[in-house]
């Protein structure tokens, strides 16, 4: 393979990968200089000129002519007077010899290796460009097309044919995709695996929800409304605390939109995830009250040392505070940064009730904790439920629930 064919084939390959001309020339020169070093030990006294457009390559070895008896005759950048005269008969000692080195002088095997090295360098460059491109896009929302569905992940293609990965754990549980579907997600992170960039997407990250709000709510995008914090149970429920420094703007109303027009687009994208948008405040009691919406809180006690908040509600508000699957209270706790314990307010009749802690000798403490997490803190509050309801709420074994009922009923029978 001569220099023209080698350079032209490389240049065509480089252009197909959108490599700019200066980078292409630099790679060519690096590879040819590596060939020179391998054959001549050094490339310091070599001049390499490349014209990629024309496929021209010129390599000149530059050496100073010294006397045949000189001590420097063995230096790599020196040539004896006798050897120089063989190249050009009128050379004199002290002059420089520019000897042109043809590509063939390196041998066919070295040229083939150079071709493979050039292609590999472009592929490595392509990987670096891809890594850098998506590293800058981390946290940004993109769209890609599904091209293969695997058990633990979905493979997608971007507009340039690059492979992206949406792992099972980064998918909303209700997500169902087919080949060819367009998928929105954020760039979650970019890893390097065996020298190859691995681009991981996410639809479960709170950042994904934040970017969707930016797309649907101009005031958020423009910075007039600030999203303070987002907590999510993907596909089930989310709570978004927002704030505006402009008193003329209602941050909650702007995010929801007229008749819910803005938030509906976000909800649809998240597989009907229930989104609560609340006004952020530094008043902790008010913030907790808003976080537990739609439940109406009667009173709140804060323990800063243990980072726990006791919330008291009327009996009919307890289930609203806890929410389906316990998501409402879990998300409210994460949003305010305190563990929230829910308690029922007792009326006069219920004052005859017995606190569950009175049964700690008969019922294991961890079981009482499980009951309290669901707002059941007295014997009568537990007995007011059916066996099925209590099993579903607490996920306790049926035998355990039966024993709890037996112990509590025995108290009132007495």
TrEMBL record:
Q: Which domain of life is it from?
A: Bacteria
Can the keyword Transcription regulation be found in this entry's annotation?
yes
For this protein, the record's Pfam families field holds: KH_NusA_1st (PF13184), KH_NusA_2nd (PF26594), NusA_N (PF08529)
Start and end residues of each S1 motif domain: 139-204
Query: Could you tell me the keywords of this UniProt record?
Result: Cytoplasm, RNA-binding, Transcription, Transcription antitermination, Transcription regulation, Transcription termination
The compartments listed are: Cytoplasm
Could you tell me which SUPFAM superfamilies the record lists for this protein? Nucleic acid-binding proteins (SSF50249), Prokaryotic type KH domain (KH-domain type II) (SSF54814), Rad51 N-terminal domain-like (SSF47794), Transcription factor NusA, N-terminal domain (SSF69705)
For this protein, the record's PROSITE patterns field holds: S1
- Please classify the protein's predominant subcellular localization into one broad category: cytoplasm
Could you say which protein family the record assigns here? Answer: Belongs to the NusA family.
Q: Which PANTHER family match?
A: TRANSCRIPTION TERMINATION FACTOR NUSA, TRANSCRIPTION TERMINATION_ANTITERMINATION PROTEIN NUSA
**Assembly and interactions?**
Monomer. Binds directly to the core enzyme of the DNA-dependent RNA polymerase and to nascent RNA.
What is the designated name of this protein?
A: Transcription termination/antitermination protein NusA
Q: Which organism is it from?
A: Algoriphagus halophytocola
The encoding gene is nusA
């Amino acid at each position: 393979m001569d220099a023209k064919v080698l350079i032209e084939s490389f240049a065509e390959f480089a252009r197909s990968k959108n490599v700019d001309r200066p980078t292409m020339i630099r790679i060519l020169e690096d590879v040819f200089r590596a060939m020179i070093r391998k054959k001549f030990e050094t490339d310091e006294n070599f001049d390499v000129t490349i014209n990629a457009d024309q496929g021209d390559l010129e390599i000149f070895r530059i050496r100073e002519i010294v006397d045949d008896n000189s001590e420097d005759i063995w230096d790599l950048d020196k040539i004896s007077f006798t050897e120089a005269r063989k190249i050009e008969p009128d050379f004199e000692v002290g002059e420089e010899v520019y000897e042109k080195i043809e590509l063939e002088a390196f041998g066919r095997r070295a040229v083939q290796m150079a071709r493979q090295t050039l292609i590999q360098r472009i592929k490595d460059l392509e990987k670096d460009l891809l890594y850098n491109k998506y590293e800058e896009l981390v946290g940004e929302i993109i769209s890609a097309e599904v091209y293969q569905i695997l058990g633990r992940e979905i493979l997608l293609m971007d507009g340039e044919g690059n492979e992206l990965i949406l792992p099972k754990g980064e998918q909303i549980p209700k997500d169902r995709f087919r080949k060819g579907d367009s998928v929105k997600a954020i760039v979650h992170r970019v890893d390097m695996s065996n020298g190859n960039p691995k681009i991981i997407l996410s639809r479960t990250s709170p950042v994904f929800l934040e970017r969707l709000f930016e797309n649907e709510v101009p005031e958020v995008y423009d910075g007039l409304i600030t999203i303070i914090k987002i907590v999510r149970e993907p596909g089930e429920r989310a709570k978004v605390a927002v704030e505006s420094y402009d008193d003329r703007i209602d941050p909650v109303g702007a995010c929801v939109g007229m008749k819910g027009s803005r938030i509906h687009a976000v909800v649809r994208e998240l597989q009907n995830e229930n989104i609560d948008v609340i006004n952020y405040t530094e008043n902790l009691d008010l913030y907790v009250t808003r976080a537990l919406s739609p439940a109406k809180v009667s009173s709140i006690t804060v323990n800063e040392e243990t980072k726990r908040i006791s919330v008291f509600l009327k009996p009919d508000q307890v289930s609203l505070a806890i929410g389906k699957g316990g998501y409402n209270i879990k998300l409210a706790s994460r949003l305010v940064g305190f563990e929230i314990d829910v308690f029922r307010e007792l009326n006069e009749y219920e004052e005859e009730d017995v606190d569950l802690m009175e049964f700690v000798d008969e019922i294991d403490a961890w079981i009482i904790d499980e009951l309290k997490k669901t707002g059941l803190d007295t014997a009568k509050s537990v007995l007011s439920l059916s066996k099925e309801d209590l099993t579903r709420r607490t996920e306790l074994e049926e035998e355990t629930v039966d024993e709890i009922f037996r112990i509590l009923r025995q108290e009132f029978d007495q």
